[in-house]
Write a structure and sequence with these properties.
By secondary structure, the protein is α+β, with helices and mostly antiparallel strands. It contains 2 helices and 22 strands. Keywords: Bacterial flagellum, Cell projection, Cilium, Flagellum.
Length: 255
C-alpha cells in the first residue's frame, strides 16, 4: 500500500509540472515571439519481485517487476516558427527562420531574444520595451536613428536616410545555437546560452521590417493537454483518498 501511495504522489507531482507548463503557455499566448514549453515524463526505478517468499505468477513475466511512479524531466522549449503579422512600424522586426536578436541589457549583460517589438529611444538606439539595446554591428556612418529615417533589408543591413541618399549604417546579425535546448530563459522573453553552448551567426534567416512574430502556442493543443493532465491528477488524488480509507479500516481493526 505504501508503494501505491508513493506512485500516486509522484504521478500527481509530474502532472502538476505539466499543468504549470500549460498555464505558462496559455498566459503567454499573446506575447510577441514567445516559444511554448513542454515537459516530458520518465519512469522512476523499477524493482524485481522475482525473489524467494514473494507470491508472483511465474507464467507472467510482466508481473515480476513493479514501478515506483514517474517524474518529469527538464522542460523543453518548442523553437518552431510563429506566424508573422504586419504592423507597418519601421522599428518592428521579425525573424523568418531559426535564431535570435542579440541585445545588451542596461546592466551590460549580453542576452538574446526572439521578440522584435522594438522602438527608437531618445538616443537614437534601437531598443525593446525594457531598454535592452539591439546590437548593430559594423557601424559605417555616424548619425542617430529615428522612427522614419532607416530601413532594414532581409539580410539585416541597416540603411540610414541622409537627404536623398540611403547610406549603410550597420548590420543586425541573427544568432543561433547548436542544440534545440541550449538556451536558458532569464525572464522578460530573454535567453542566455547554457555553459559550453556553441553560438554561431545564422545567415539563412531573414529579417522582416514592419512585422512581428506571434507566439507559437497552439491553444487547442494546450486546452486538450490540460484536460488530460487534470483527469490524471484527479485519478492520483482519488487513489490517495482510497488508500487513506484503507489505512483507516486497518487501524480500526487493530483496535
Amino acid at each position: 500500500m505504501l508503494r501505491s501511495i508513493w506512485n500516486s504522489v509522484s504521478a500527481m507531482n509530474a502532472q502538476q509540472d505539466k499543468l504549470n507548463s500549460i498555464s505558462n503557455n496559455l498566459a503567454n499566448v499573446s506575447t510577441v515571439g514567445y516559444k511554448s514549453e513542454d515537459v516530458n515524463f520518465q519512469d522512476l526505478m523499477y524493482e524485481t519481485l522475482n525473489r524467494d517468499g514473494y507470491p508472483v505468477n511465474e507464467n507472467s513475466p510482466t508481473a515480476l517487476i513493479t514501478g515506483s511512479g514517474s517524474k518529469t524531466t527538464e522542460w523543453v522549449r518548442d523553437t518552431s516558427q510563429g506566424s508573422l503579422t504586419e504592423t507597418n512600424k519601421k522599428s518592428n522586426l521579425a525573424i523568418d527562420g531559426q535564431g535570435f536578436f542579440r541585445v545588451t541589457t542596461p546592466s551590460g549583460q549580453t542576452a538574446y531574444e526572439r521578440a522584435g517589438n522594438f522602438n527608437v529611444d531618445s538616443s537614437g538606439r534601437l531598443v525593446d520595451d525594457d531598454g535592452n539595446v539591439v546590437n548593430i554591428e559594423s557601424v559605417q556612418v555616424s548619425g542617430n536613428l529615428n522612427n522614419n529615417n532607416f530601413t532594414i533589408n532581409r539580410q539585416g543591413y541597416v540603411y540610414i536616410r541622409e537627404g536623398n541618399q540611403d547610406r549603410l549604417y550597420g548590420k543586425i546579425n541573427i544568432y543561433n545555437v547548436v542544440g534545440q535546448d541550449s538556451m536558458t530563459s532569464i525572464g522578460d522573453n530573454l535567453y542566455t546560452p547554457k555553459q559550453g553552448t556553441q553560438i554561431y551567426q545564422n545567415n539563412d534567416a531573414s529579417i522582416y521590417q514592419g512585422y512581428l512574430e506571434q507566439s507559437n502556442v497552439d491553444t487547442g493543443k494546450e486546452m486538450t493537454d490540460m484536460i488530460v493532465s487534470q483527469r490524471a491528477f484527479e485519478l492520483g488524488a482519488k487513489a490517495l483518498s482510497t488508500s487513506d480509507d484503507m489505512w483507516g479500516m486497518i487501524n480500526s481493526m487493530r483496535r
